[in-house]
Amino acid sequence: MVYGLGPYIADYPEQILLSGVVQNWCPRCLGHRKDLDSSQPCLHRHEAHTELLIKQLTYKQAWDEYGIIADLGPFTNDFPQVDIHELLSPDILHQIIKGTFKDHLVDWVGEYLLITHGTHHAAELMDDIDHRIAAVAPFTGLRRFPDGRGFWQWTGDDSKALMKVYLAAIEGHVPQDVVCTFSAFLEFCYTVRCEALTEDDLIKLQDALDRFHQYQEIFKTTGVVSTFSLPRQHSLCHYILLIRLFSAPNGLCSSITKSKHIKAVKEPWRQSSRFDALGQMLLTNQSLNKLAAAHIDFEARGMLHGSCYVQNVHALSLELNLPHLPFMIQEFIHDQHYSEDPNPPEFDPATAQVFLGNLTIFNSAAASFHAPSDLSGMGGMRRKHIQATPSWHVGEPRHDFLCLFSFDYPISYYPCTIVHCYSYVHKECDPDTGMYVVTPTTTGDDVPDVSIIHVDCIFHAAHLIPVYGPDFIPKISPHNSYDMFHSYYVNRYADHHTFEIV
């Protein structure tokens, strides 16, 4: 019988158990546990070398000098041509997201504020950071944090969601080097998560890692930490080699199996009475499977198609407070009519075609696109929903765009949307955060610059996070976020597809 063993995904405790390595040592290389942050490359562990050391050294010498547990042999020793140290693959969840981001960087920011500003002012700053996180506008696929980053128990999903908004929230309350540390780390994390990586991408990956190591020194100089010899953070140094060995991770990590465990075990258990819970959990899973099957059947029968309603132009202009909406529709029809004309005539409201019919209004729309670096379906296709509804979940309004509507004129069908235009503050992205900064544009009389565009013109929805600056902000609703600030970051970390195109 021939066995095939491939890359082994495991968190750090399981990695050291599998490889027979002592806690706080690296299971892949011979770097000393007190010097894992060394800039010098280390020799990689190898089964033959480990067995030789076990024969030549005492148990204590092997433990203290090489981090080897002499009486614990990896299970791969029984397989020919297999080395556990080479099989250990990247684990993005525990090494990058929960390890480096949550357990290190986020905690270090709190420690920095405490050391630098004292208990009282540090608490005020942390409260304001929570207000900033809670004020982030909603976006499809983006989790909300109504109480900021305070959790009784963190999960991997909590950490992944917080990564998308944390950088903009701390900017202004922490030094430039701390902001650059997070920016370099996020660039490394999101680049690793891409579907495919070229040699140029690996060069950028190494550059991001070098900048991360350079800027995080501020946490050492300010007394937050005494060393960066941390196994999970050290593991980032091996990613480029592991990508060359095993190809791009593309999100493959232990979170995939954990997500199945959460859906099949944890969530049904939480919904049970906790007494003789197994039968209740099985019944819950059976019910969820039946609901999923019913959803597919209802979808096939056309029973779940989005609702819409009909409204005339005048009523919609009053609802949206856009008195010039009829003229905007005139201009839109003019642009569509001459869309293929290289020398279109100038728009003249006096002679342009007038639309007096009804508009079909939609409160939501679904977009399907190719985004293999995000969790997606067959062929890398992903679907997202965008909303324009006066009440979201029986609460405040949700406007990813001002309005989505369609109309026929005279025989053509025009699906279109009303958007508020923004312009770049600078042509280049912000050097500290790595994000572009935009500001709402206005007409000559300070009226918001609003226009109608065809839905085919939309390439991707953009998520904006306010540029908070150093000032404290009041508690504001996330639904009012786009009306309260003068400039915004284009959030390239909203999802992996956005990161690749922005």
N-to-C CA distance: 50 Å
Count the strands? 12
- The dominant shape is globular
Strand percent estimate: 5-15%
Which structural class fits the helix and strand makeup?
Answer: alpha+beta
- Biggest β-sheet: count, sense, barrel? 5 strands, antiparallel
Rg computed from alpha carbons, rounded to a whole number of angstroms: 27 Å
Q: Can you describe this structure?
A:
By secondary structure, the chain is of the alpha+beta class. Helix 5 packs across helix 8 and helix 13 packs across helix 14 (about 275-300). It has 18 helices and twelve strands.
Compact overview of the structure:
The chain has 502 residues and is α+β, with helices and mostly antiparallel strands. 41% of the residues lie in helices and 12% in strands.
For the structure shown, list the relevant keywords.
single chain, 502 residues, alpha+beta, five-stranded antiparallel sheet, four-stranded antiparallel sheet, 12 strands
Topology diagram in text:
Layout (H helix, E strand, L loop, with lengths): L11 H8 L27 H10 L2 H8 L17 H4 L4 H43 L21 H8 L2 H5 L5 H17 L6 H17 L1 H5 L9 H4 L4 H8 L8 H16 L6 H24 L7 E5 H8 L4 H13 L20 E5 L1 E7 L10 E9 L8 E2 L3 E6 L4 E8 L1 E3 L12 E4 L9 E5 L9 E3 L14 H4 L3 E3 L5 H6 L1
Antiparallel strand pairs: 1-2, 2-6, 3-4, 4-5, 6-7, 7-10, 8-9, 9-12, 11-12
Helix pairs in contact: 5-6, 5-8, 8-9, 13-14
